[in-house]
Amino acid sequence: MLSNHGVDKLSIGSLSRTVGVAKTSFYWHFKDRQDLLDHMLEYWVSEFNAVLTDNPDLPQLPPKQRLQTIADTVAGQDLAKYELAIRAWASHDEAAMAVFENIHSRRMAVIQRAFADSGLNEREQESRAELFNCYLNWGKVMNNDPHAYRVTVDSLIPLLLQATSVTDKAD
User: d(Cα 170, Cα 164) in Å, to the nearest integer?
Assistant: First the structure.
């Protein structure tokens, strides 16, 4: 419901009807709608982000393999499926924005570290990490074909790891 209709349309009544349970059953699991929303954010953090941001094995991999592992995990586990909905929710909810920004900065630190370990300067690390993260999380929306999405991600990694960039040539 969050992905299809957004957080504003997520009500106890609509959720109960969709799941096929009485509204009273909802209250066995959650205090109120806000409790549900809080749990949804916690779930998004733990199930869709911690797998990357808290993975102790990831920093041990060489940069190319690290980025490929991140891409394989995001695509293979469909970790980006709520990204747009969470971001839209965060655009008008301060608590959701605080969670989103925290996760975004943690995610970016993991990705940027791969570019740092490949020897790129800080400006390049930041811009390439943003581009990589952007395509991982939004590329599936832009390209509805899962195979084409994976081909693009797999092509993007070596391109982003190249030492010389267009901006370096222009300087």
Answer: 11
